[in-house]
Design a protein that fits this description.
Layout lengths: L25 H16 L4 E3 L9 E4 L8 E12 L2 E5 L7 E7 L2 E7 L5 E7 H14 L4 H4 L6 E2 L7
Antiparallel strand pairs: 1-2, 2-3, 3-6, 4-5, 5-8, 6-7
This protein binds nickel (II) ion.
The site of nickel (II) ion has 6 residues, from helix 2.
Length: 160
C-alpha cells in the first residue's frame, strides 16, 4: 500500500468525468487500498479516485463506526429519497466546510473489490458520503451544491 498525492481544488482533473472500470483486477484492488490508506492518513470519511489523479469510477468510504470500510467500483445511485441539511467538507478543499442539502436515503449499486455486485441501502451520514463521492466521478464538487454563503474556513488544529 502507498499514500497517494491528493489533488486540490483548482486541479482540472477534479472537473473531469471518470471512466467505468471494465474489470476489477489487481491494479484496481491496489488503487482501492492506496485510496483507503491515503484517506485514513488525512482523517477523511470518503475519497474518490479523481482526487488521487485517476479518472476511474472507484470510491472508498469509512465512517469509523465499527463497520468495515466500503471499497466500491462503478457505484451508481439507483434511488434517492428525502432530504437532510448537512455540513460537509472534502479532502480536496482542506479546512473548508459548507452546508448543503443531501438525500436522506440512497440505494447504491456497485461492484466490490472482487468484482461482485453489491447493493447498499444507506441513510444519514452514509447516504451523504455516498452522494458526495459519486458526485466526484462526474466532476461535481461539494461547493457546487452548497447553500449560498455557507462556505467557512476553519483553521487547522496544529496552527492554533
Ligand atoms: Ni470530496
Amino acid at each position: 500500500m502507498a499514500i497517494r498525492e491528493i489533488r486540490l481544488n483548482g486541479d482540472e482533473i477534479l472537473r473531469k468525468k471518470s471512466r467505468v472500470v471494465e474489470e476489477v483486477d489487481d491494479r484496481i484492488r491496489e488503487l482501492l487500498d492506496d485510496m483507503l490508506e491515503t484517506m485514513h492518513k488525512y482523517n477523511g470519511v470518503g475519497l474518490a479516485a479523481p482526487q488521487v489523479g485517476i479518472l476511474k469510477r472507484v470510491i472508498v468510504i469509512d465512517l469509523y463506526d465499527g463497520n468495515p470500510p466500503l471499497k466500491l467500483v462503478n457505484p451508481v445511485i439507483t434511488k434517492a429519497k428525502g432530504e437532510q441539511e448537512v455540513e460537509e467538507g472534502c479532502l480536496s478543499f482542506p479546512n473548508q466546510y459548507a452546508k448543503m442539502v443531501r438525500p436522506e436515503e440512497v440505494v447504491v449499486e456497485a461492484l466490490d473489490e472482487n468484482g461482485k455486485k453489491v447493493k447498499i441501502k444507506a441513510k444519514g451520514l452514509l447516504a451523504q458520503a455516498l452522494s458526495h463521492e459519486v458526485d466526484h466521478l462526474e466532476g461535481i464538487l461539494f461547493v457546487d451544491n452548497m447553500l449560498p454563503g455557507t462556505l467557512e474556513y476553519v483553521e487547522p488544529e496544529e496552527s492554533k
